[in-house]
Design goal:
Layout (H helix, E strand, L loop, with lengths): L1 E9 L2 H31 L6 H10 L15 H23 L20 E6 L5 E2 L5 E3 L3 E6 L10 E6 L5 E8 L2 H8 L7 E6 L3 E5 L4 E3 L3 H4 L1 H12 L6 H35 L2 E5 L3 H4 L5 H7 L1 H15 L2 E5 L25 E3 L6 E3 H17 L23 E2 L5
Helix pairs in contact: 1-3, 2-3, 6-7, 7-10
């Protein structure tokens, strides 16, 4: 499995200028490649191949007065910009023909120097390296200081230097992990350990064992500071240096929220994967729920990112992860006897089963049902919940429940 390890960079002022040149040259080559393909499409000609674009937009362009400054950066950075264009068009056409799953993608667009994120990629051909002193030596940029938070588990195959909206620099290394070493390092839980997860807003997650994990609400807690910073930005004159300072202040405030939420998701997902052999979670339609009146709280929770982390960590460490279909009536069925009591409004947090008289906490009961449905799929040997009620969409069996797969 390929994973990315990101570390903060501290470039010097001279290195920042060199990185700005690399960002700009890669952006120009990217835009030139899109323009060449669009001109060919408008004229009814075949799209130029990668070899033709490389020769005309890089090799020959360096010899002209208008593009002579392309020689100031590593040629690998420019070649990778062309690879990005090819990948963007390939994904676009695959999305249009239905070969690519997920929401439809638009045609590749031109990049701007005002984009919030700037990035360049160095492959092994660029001869970049990590020095014995722990610095990242990049061609035509120099040795950049890296804030190492942990050791790399293997030799990276490439590194991407990223500048985000807050003006921070990061080095993102691509690592090929060893599954056996990963499982040995994390350890093996009990063979029959399993957990069901019910995601919500009152609590971020309620587990089938009764554990309730509070929702940190990172965005809600930072709203006052964000509003103040945004007001200050709106009062600054457009194009002024003070407005740029205010914009970076807003970006840094948002970055703190994003970083805190990501750290929370990482810690919780790793804990659940480490302690359980099987994990079951609901496949929520977040994009649909986010159009309701609770949209801000739903986005603040970040359910999709958390489930994505569970999926790739389960694959990495050899755990079983099942996504229970969103139409499964987990909040309507008694986890003790299987009797279905029907839908209930969100204001009902506890209810008594009319079949057996058991008093249920709404979220805890749903987590138990999620676990039972997930175990039915992963075949862990647990007893399937009795009398599940009518299957959704007139289906028979468990077709509505599918194992999770990690997106490429």
């Amino acid at each position: 499995m390929q994973l990315r390890y990101a570390f903060r960079l501290d470039p010097t002022p001279g290195q920042r200028s060199a990185l700005a040149r690399a960002f700009g040259c890669a952006r120009v080559v990217y835009n030139d490649a899109i323009a060449a393909r669009e001109q060919a499409r408008a004229a009814g000609r075949p799209f130029p191949t990668a070899a033709v674009l490389s020769r005309t937009l890089i090799t020959e362009a360096k010899k002209t007065r208008e593009r002579s400054w392309l020689g100031e950066v590593s040629a690998v950075v420019l070649q990778q910009a062309l690879r990005d264009v090819e990948a963007a068009y390939r994904n676009f056409f695959a999305s249009r023909t239905g070969k690519r799953k997920g929401p439809g993608l638009g045609a590749p667009r031109f990049r701007s120097r005002r984009d919030a994120r700037q990035a360049v990629r160095f492959t092994a051909n660029a001869r970049w390296k990590i020095t014995p002193a722990g610095r990242l030596n990049l061609p035509k940029i120099g040795e950049v200081r890296v804030r190492w938070s942990r050791a790399l588990p293997a030799i990276p195959s490439s590194v991407t230097v990223v500048k985000d909206a807050a003006g921070r620099y990061f080095a993102s290394f691509v690592i090929d992990t060893d599954p056996e070493q990963d499982r040995t390092r994390l350890g093996e839980p009990a063979p029959d350990s399993a957990v069901g997860i019910d995601l919500g807003l009152a609590h971020f997650a309620v587990l089938s064992d009764g554990t309730k994990i509070d929702s940190p609400r990172f965005l809600r807690r930072a709203e006052k500071k964000l509003k103040k910073a945004q007001r200050e930005l709106s009062r600054k004159q457009k194009g002024s240096s003070n407005r740029e300072k205010a914009r970076q202040k807003v970006a840094r405030a948002h970055a703190k929220v994003v970083d805190a939420r990501r750290e929370f998701h990482h810690q919780l997902s790793t804990k659940l994967i480490r302690e359980n052999q099987a994990v079951a979670v609901e496949d929520l339609a977040v994009s649909g729920l986010a159009r309701a009146r609770l949209a801000r709280s739903i986005h603040d929770a970040g359910w999709s990112r958390f489930v994505h982390m569970l999926a790739y960590k389960a694959q990495r460490y050899g755990r079983a992860l099942a996504k229970v279909d969103r139409f499964e009536p987990t909040s309507q069925v008694c986890s003790a006897c299987g009797h279905r009591d029907g839908p209930k409004p969100l204001t009902v947090r506890e209810w008594t089963c009319t079949g057996c008289g058991t008093v249920h906490d709404r979220d805890h009961n749903a987590a138990k049902n999620v676990k039972a449905a997930g175990l039915a799929v992963t075949a862990c040997g647990a007893q399937v919940r009795p009398d599940p009620g009518p299957a959704p969409r007139d289906e028979a069996g468990s077709h509505g429940i599918r194992p999770a797969t990690r997106a490429a």
